[in-house]
Amino acid sequence: MTSSQRRLFPDFILGPLKGVAATLLSLGIGSALLATSEPARADTWPAKPIKLVVPYPPGGAADAVARLYAEKLGESLKQPVLVENKAGAGTAIAAEFVANAPADGYTLSLVPTGQLTVLPHIAKNLRFDPLNSFAPISLLASTAVVIAANPTVPAGNVKELVALVKAKPGKLSYSSSGSGTIIHLAGENFRLSTGTDILHVPFKGSAPAVTALLGGEVDLAFDTLTVLAPQIKAGKVKGIAIASKKRSPLLPGVPTVAEAGYPDYDVVSWFGLAAPAGTPDAVVKRLNAEVQVIAAQPAAQEKLAAQGLEAWPSTPTQFAERIRSDHAKYGRIVKASGATFD
Predict the structure, then answer these.
(1) Which of 55, 109, 189, 331 is the most exposed place for a label (fewest CB within 10 A)?
(2) Is residue 153 located within the same domain as residue 255?
(3) Same domain, 148 and 252
(4) Which residues are CB-neighbours of 256 under 8 A, at least 6 positions away?
(5) The CA-based dihedral angle spanning residues 217, 222, 226, 227, taken in that order and rounded to the nearest 10 degrees
């Protein structure tokens, strides 16, 4: 500052300005320190318990998957991973909670297939974006959907079933665990793929849907291997076909729908792990690495198999691609079938 400038700004003005300058300088330095300390903070994660949000009540396949991985992750991360069940609104409550949680690695989501791929097409006013509100970490487990028939139905495979339904359009019915579920869309996908007319009968959950099949109230049922494999193995219902492109080791004698001449028919029910969008890459990579280790453990695989599930780990990119592809596929099925939310 020149001597003439000093004459224009006396000391009683310059004094406070110097203090402001010093404060701004210290803030600049502080900001720089904060910026350089972020990676270190990610490196020290986790420093406290982690919450894993499950969109269903306790019990069932989703809860079992969550608790298995929560226990194993807690052991490897040296911090408790606490399962928190937030059921309701077709899994929307849990999704919205996680989407709006801090992206700090301390809130995770157990993602079922329909939450990000079906629900957005049939529910209104969701407060999350299925493709942008989450950071995919890894797929965790999967189970095939299976088509089962009451023993009185005169069909033992897909070709015979299609012929029977075409001979009696609108006369045969199938049960599902509810309208707008992945199971419902598996049935609608089959109807559209085979050009058949089958009546959909929705129930409030898998248990009453299977009970209806056993009692002859409906002719067919679409549900996961977790639900139907025990009934098929016991000979109480007939296993018509597996809905995915490969046979299941849990029911190796049941062929796939693809084997019957419908190669594009593929329905897999999966569970994945995600975090709020913006979660540090270091945290996502660490969690993904831990999931790979857990999924390879024979003890974990045995526990999953007891639930009719297979370990199904992936990279974050592969999980993101799966969400996008299933979101597009089920969007087409919802539009073509007119499926609605129960």
Answers:
(1) 331
(2) yes
(3) yes
(4) 241, 242, 243, 244, 245, 246, 247
(5) -10
Supply the pLDDT for residue 43. Answer: 73
Name the residue range of residue 100's domain: 50-142+269-337
Locate tokens 């579920």: which residue?
Answer: 181
Question: Residue 175 phi/psi, 5° resolution?
Answer: -100, 155
Residues 151 and 196 in one domain: yes
| Whole-Å CA distances, 108 to 73, 80, 98, 165, 200 | 12, 13, 7, 44, 35
3 state DSSP class of 275:
strand
Classify residue 256 by its DSSP letter.
B
Task: List, as one string, the DSSP characters of 55-88.
Answer: SS-SSSHHHHHHHHHHHHHHHHHTS-EEEEE---
- pTM for the structure as a whole: 0.84
**Structure tokens that stand for 35 in this block:** 């910026």
Q: What is the pLDDT of residues 89-130, one digit of tens each?
A: 999 999 999 999 999 999 999 999 999 999 999 998 999 999
| Alpha carbons within 13 A on the beta-carbon side of 268 | 22
Query: What pLDDT is attached to residue 27?
Result: 43
Range 133-146 burial, b when 16+ CB lie within 10 A, else e: bbbbbbbbbbbbbb
pLDDT digits (tens, 9 = 90+) for 143-188: 999 999 999 999 999 999 999 999 999 999 999 999 999 999 999 9
Instruction: Report d(CA 137, CA 76) in Å as an integer.
Output: 16
Kindly report the backbone phi and psi dihedral angles of residue 301, in degrees, each rounded to the nearest multiple of 5, phi listed first: -65, -35
* Whether 136 and 273 share a structural domain: yes
* Cα–Cα dist 216/182, whole Å: 23
